[in-house]
Write a structure and sequence with these properties.
Order of helices and strands: HHHHHHHH
Low-confidence stretches: none
Distance between the termini: 34 Å
Shape: rod-shaped
Helix content: over 70%
Number of domains: 1
Number of strands: 0
Structural class: mainly alpha
Largest sheet: none
Mean pLDDT: 84
Length: 258
């Protein structure tokens, strides 16, 4: 019984992940795809137009936004790797010197807190960086407070890697708050919604007015579902930090203590 419950829970979680692309936009698009063939048959609307322009209006911006979202995800991975490399190097630098044990523990606690705050900041919808900035500044304050203990060469190396740390955090924050062009996404979504209005009468003409109606419904609904699903996939990939999509980045891997 316990094994059955585990298998059932695993199946539910798997299905939930794969159906994450289904949302209110999907339902709205399918509703349009059902109503449009009904009205087309009721009012005898059928014509044959070239769908190339409609395809360009939808496919080109959709492909552009998906590619842009993938690039943002890849850039995020690069900056996360830079972030962890910089913070781990700072940890090793302080541990390699003959500092008092309490000082090593103090700076280690600061670096762990920076790591946690960066990850939590990226997971949240909070764009305020005051707490994060205050935490990263503690490293500089630590150097100033222990100026007589730290050697000049160590301080120079710490400042260099601290610069890399700040650069990585700022780049991650930029990805966190800026998305692909909103106007282009809105334009693409609008044309996806109105696509059945142009597509349905053409499909009726191609398969014949006297053909079975369910074929038209099936083609229109399937086409609209594919387009809106691709849009939803792009929307999930665009924000790779919220841990909702299948392709989200596992941020815990980039913590200082993973």
């Amino acid at each position: 019984m316990f094994l059955f419950l585990q298998i059932y829970q695993l199946a539910i979680n798997t299905m939930r992940k794969y159906f994450i692309i289904v949302n209110y936009r999907t339902l709205f698009a399918i509703l349009i795809s059902i109503i449009t063939p009904y009205l087309a048959y009721k009012y005898n609307l059928n014509y044959n137009i070239d769908l190339t322009l409609i395809s360009i209006a939808i496919v080109f911006p959709l492909v552009f936004t998906i590619r842009s979202s993938f690039r943002r995800r890849e850039k995020a991975l690069e900056h996360l790797s830079q972030f962890r490399a910089a913070i781990k190097t700072l940890e090793f630098l302080f541990k390699s010197k003959n500092l008092p044990e309490e000082k090593i523990d103090e700076i280690a606690a600061i670096l762990i807190e920076i790591s946690e705050k960066v990850v939590n900041h990226l997971k949240s919808n909070n764009y305020n960086t005051k707490e994060l900035d205050a935490e990263t500044n503690k490293v500089s304050l630590f150097i100033i407070d222990n100026n007589d203990v730290l050697s000049k060469s160590l301080k120079s190396r710490v400042i260099r890697y601290l610069n890399d740390l700040h650069e990585a955090i700022d780049n991650l924050h930029a990805i966190h708050i800026h998305r692909t062009p909103i106007s282009l996404k809105a334009y693409c979504l609008l044309f996806i919604y109105i696509f059945p209005l142009f597509y349905t009468p053409t499909i009726i003409t191609k398969i014949g007015v006297d053909s079975t109606m369910w074929i038209t419904y099936f083609i229109v609904i399937l086409s609209e579902f594919i387009l809106i699903s691709l849009y939803n996939i792009q929307d999930h990939i665009e924000y790779p930090f919220d841990q909702d999509g299948l392709d989200d980045i596992n941020l815990n891997v980039f913590k200082i203590d993973r």
